[in-house]
Amino acid sequence: MKRIVILFGLILSACDPGTPPQPETGRQPNPAFEAQIQAMEKARAVEGQMMDAAEAQRKQMDEAAQ
């Protein structure tokens, strides 16, 4: 009886019903976080504008001091 079970187990383990691996596609953004992602992108854009404005103000102050 053990031999039959072992033989049956070997036969089943030899079968590979798995499908071939699929190529990974682009990651779809989660709609639950889409609003947060857009808010972060806007914040980064505003931060860049603020840094540019601060740099221009520093230059203007340096020129006025000289």
Question: What does this protein look like?
Answer:
There is one protein chain. The chain is mainly α and 66 residues long. It has a domain at 31-66. 68% of the residues lie in helices and 0% in strands. The protein has two helices and no strands. The chain is rod-shaped. The termini are far apart.
How are the secondary structure elements laid out?
Elements: H1 2-14, H2 34-65
Question: Keyphrases for this structure?
Answer:
single chain, 66 residues, 2 helices, 68% helix, rod-shaped
Q: Count of DSSP helices?
A: 2
The major β-sheet equals:
none
Uncertain runs: none
Distance between the termini: 100 Å
Rg from C-alpha positions?
A: 32 Å
Strand % is under 5%
Average pLDDT for all residues: 83
Helices and strands, in N-to-C order? HH
Q: Please state the structural category.
A: mainly alpha
Shape verdict: rod-shaped
What helical percentage do the residues reach? 55-70%
Short précis:
The protein has helices at 2-14, 34-65. With 66 residues, the protein is an all-alpha fold. It has a domain at 31-66.
